[in-house]
Here is the input.
Amino acid sequence: MGARKDIDGSASVPAFYGKELRFKREAAGLTLEQTVEGSFYGTSYLSEIERGQRRMPGDLARHVDRVLGTDGFFERCCEDVRRAKRKGHAEYFEYVLEAEKHADAIEDWCPNVLTGLLQTPEYARAMALSAHPGATEEWVEEKVAARMRRARLFEDDHDKPEYWAIMHESILRHPVLLPAEMAEQLDRIAALARRRRIFAQILPWNGGTYPMMQGGAMMMTFPDAPPLVYTESAYSGTTIDDPALVKRYRKSYDLLRAAALPPEASLAMIEDAAEDYRNGKQPH
Here is the structure.
């Protein structure tokens, strides 16, 4: 059995409450199994909450308060944890933040702008200001930092999900940043592909009609839960779990993948565009 790892409660709000949960549970002399007995959750789920890796759902918080006799403490703290975990993100994006950490595959379709997981700080800043031109610098920097935290998903060698991104070619050609910054943005995508952290495909601009022309989508599959689809508009987002709708998105994404260039050809196109920007040229 491995050594018991201490929890740094100062690392984050979820870690603080996770440490409190472990302290209260052990003070009550209960195991993980005894604590979750009678709930709909397993021991691994509770263990991840104790380590600050998952938020505690309201129904589990109420169950834990009853079992540990903590007088509603964990139920009251649920909202604090939710706000902390979504800091820098919209409230409607909260569920995606939780879900993508536990997905075994994430598939993105980017018709107009790069998905947040692939953005550099400069690109993220430009996107935040395009949607909120009157925002304060502090607010913008919070948004940028939040997107960079999400990108840590690619840093874990063992638990990273398989990630696919299909991007419309127009994204490569649209200079939303200065040329050097656009080159850096495309270099980041190419580097992730070269390191086999992601699979990137480009949908050619002259390919005619294609599925999901009216908007992007993120599909997530899990080892122990049904698949989800997330769609987003300018100021709102929707998480879809209806099996029939998810199936339709699945079929459309597969057709989109078939219409896109293969990963190697797509990578060459991304690197060529980056080189054009680096040389002060507009990619064509």
About this structure: The longest helix spans residues 243-259.
